[in-house]
Amino acid sequence: MASSVQNSRISSPGYCACCRTCNMWCWKGFKWLPVSFIVSIITWSYYAYVIQLCIFTIQSTVQQWIYLVLYHILLIMFVWSYWKTIFAEIEPIPEKYKLPEAELEKMLSAESEDSQRTILENFAKDLPIVTRTMSGSIRYCNRCVLVKPDRAHHCSICARCVLKMDHHCPWVNNCVCFHNYKFFMLFLGYALLYCLFVMATCLPYFIRLWKGDFGTATSSGRYHIIFAFFVSLMFAISLGSLFGYHCYLVVNNRTTLEAFRAPMFRGGADKNGFSIGAFKNFKEVFGNSPNLWLVPVFTSLGDGCEYPVRREHQLQTFTSPQDTHGYESMGITRSSVEMARETERWRLCPRKGRTVPQIV
Ligand SMILES: [Zn+2]
Ligand SMILES: [Zn+2]
């Protein structure tokens, strides 16, 4: 660990500041390419659907209005959620998790990994953290120089730690995490509905054109409608599988990262450690107000640092005897004496699967 901490010190760059700035802007521009691609597809689909299908091909005025109104409602919700996912403000990890200069110096001058571990344990003893590394140590990021809150991870693309990190998504050029997970879910859901709607309403005209009945469609219009059908079908398949998977994760209260590697609690790794029941899990992301569940405004519960955990993991952090193990029960935290005792137990029993004494 000593070497990893030392590596966090800034090394001198091998090229001039001008080249660095140029590279930085190129990289920033490159990261926006997938978003530009999606925006281009949306813009083209608007032209294909509204102009070519609704205005030039459909002849019934009533049908035109119904299609246009429904299409625009879906488009607005889809673009709104997409915008919020991309530009959600990802707040930094709170200051209390950051290692002060004095502690960092102690870490750097520590002679062994055990002493570094003890320094971290002492620093983290008043922090509300429940999970540890696979070896039972405090989860520490040597690049951000902080103790990672539960479910937080370092994103190498954003170059920082983010709360409840799910994954870094190039299609939104942002980390999907605590601050925008609801927006991401709505984006997937509305994008799927948008594709299904375009696909379903294009289908009769697609079949007609395919059979050679061109009606009032112009020659370029035919290709736009046929292409709109295929593109929406292709996106519906990929969005459907991704949305289905994320619904499964929401109901089970897991992030994508946790689905691949279960978080480590005192008694060992537990992929369901944060799961408090399907509906409560859903409300943890979408909030308590049903009126706002489908609206891309932030309503997720909690502060992103502390999460309710299953009863068997609660004793580590929370002393809630009657416990509803929900957000209501998170007010009472353990005393420092309990924390010290527990830290010692963690140290003695860090490995997965070992029997761990219970706090009395
Ligand atoms: Zn970090
Ligand atoms: Zn990221």
UniProtKB/TrEMBL annotation:
Q: Name one GO molecular function term.
A: protein-cysteine S-palmitoyltransferase activity
Keywords assigned: Acyltransferase, Membrane, Transferase, Transmembrane, Transmembrane helix
**Coiled-coil residues:** none
| Record's bilayer topology term | Multi-pass membrane protein
The answer to keyword Glycoprotein applying to this record is no
Report the EC number(s), separated by commas if there are several.
2.3.1.225
One Gene Ontology cellular component term attached to this UniProt record is: membrane
Recorded hits in InterPro entries, A to Z, give: Palmitoyltrfase_DHHC, PFA4/ZDH16/20/ERF2-like
Its gene? LOC114249528
Q: Sorted alphabetically, which Pfam families does this protein's record hold?
A: DHHC (PF01529)
Name the UniProt record assigns to this protein? Palmitoyltransferase
The family assignment reads:
Belongs to the DHHC palmitoyltransferase family.
What PROSITE patterns is this protein classified in?
DHHC
The transmembrane segments are 32-58, 64-83, 183-207, 227-251
Organism the protein comes from: Bombyx mandarina
* Entry's localization field: Membrane
Q: Does the keyword Membrane apply?
A: yes
Q: What is its main location?
A: membrane
Give the domain section of the comments: The DHHC domain is required for palmitoyltransferase activity.
Task: Tell me the domain of life.
Answer: Eukaryota
Q: What are the Palmitoyltransferase DHHC domain coordinates in residue numbering?
A: 138-260
Question: Catalysed reaction(s)?
Answer: L-cysteinyl-[protein] + hexadecanoyl-CoA = S-hexadecanoyl-L-cysteinyl-[protein] + CoA
Q: What class of enzyme is it?
A: transferase
